[in-house]
TrEMBL record:
Domain CHRD, first and last residues per copy: 48-187
InterPro entries: CHRD, TAT_signal
Keywords of this entry: Membrane, Signal, Transmembrane, Transmembrane helix
Organism annotation: Nocardioides imazamoxiresistens
Signal sequence segment: 1-25
Protein name in UniProt: CHRD domain-containing protein
Superkingdom classification of source: Bacteria
Region spans: Disordered: 106-149
Transmembrane residue ranges: 213-233
Length: 237
């Protein structure tokens, strides 16, 4: 008597059980690192400083004196992709956060606290300068739970585009757990604007030290470059 069919059936059942377990297990990270998309629906900048930190009790507390952060975000809400360029200056020590990383966008208006919605890879470098860049595609998870759900659950980049002033970006360290630096999102043009010096600012410049001085004077600059040249803004109807 052949035993081939029972063995195959048991193998199939084991495979189905494994797939069921994989489907029901909560992933450690829902978002995916992806290439930069061909276009963006919006862009934002953040000038993060240590005098804007709010602790979980809603109280203002000091961040790391002398530290700054420049965050540039480019968003394609149709594809649920956010590209980031982050530079931290003078942020020292180890990162620390109950979330899966210590660098976030929070749903938090100025002067208020709020839950993280996106967790970004922590910038790398030394205590003088740390940087990171890349693109993430949702759905997003943070590793922080509230009311039994991850604080990234249900969040979309269209929510961010609808009210960017209600979102902040920050980074947390072991010494400054509430935040070393923080700032509110400010919308900037996609496609770049004239610098007044005979050219357009680039994304690299916006993420570097030149952007720090520009942000301090309220100037937000960005150029999005595609394979064939400058990529035009595709605004949503």
């Amino acid at each position: 008597m052949s035993t081939t069919r029972p063995v195959l059936r048991l193998t199939a059942l084991a495979g189905a059980a494994a797939l069921t377990l994989a489907a029901t297990a909560a992933p450690a990270s829902a978002e995916t690192e992806v290439p930069e998309p061909d276009s963006f629906t919006s862009a934002f900048t953040v000038m993060a400083t240590p005098d804007t930190i709010i602790n979980p009790d809603g109280e203002a507390v000091p961040g790391e004196e002398g530290a700054t952060g420049t965050f540039t975000f480019r968003v394609n809400s149709d594809e649920e992709i956010i590209c980031y360029d982050i530079t931290l200056q003078g942020v020292t020590g180890e990162y620390e956060s109950p979330a899966k990383t210590a660098t976030h966008i929070h749903a938090a208006p100025a002067g208020q606290g709020g839950p993280p919605r996106i967790a970004f890879p922590n910038p790398e470098g030394d205590d003088s300068s740390r940087t990171s860049s890349g693109c993430l595609q949702g759905p997003f998870t943070t590793g922080v739970e509230a009311d039994g759900a991850d604080t990234g659950d249900g969040f979309t980049l269209a929510d961010l585009e609808a009210d960017p002033a209600s979102f902040s970006a920050d980074t947390h360290t072991a010494e400054f757990v509430a935040g070393a630096v923080r700032g509110q999102l400010t919308e900037i043009p996609v496609g770049g604007v004239d610098t007044g010096a005979g050219g357009l600012a680039t994304t690299t410049e916006a993420a570097g030290t030149g952007a720090t001085a520009a942000a301090l004077t309220g100037v937000a600059l960005l150029t999005v470059v595609g394979a064939a040249g400058a990529v035009a803004l595709r605004r949503k109807a």
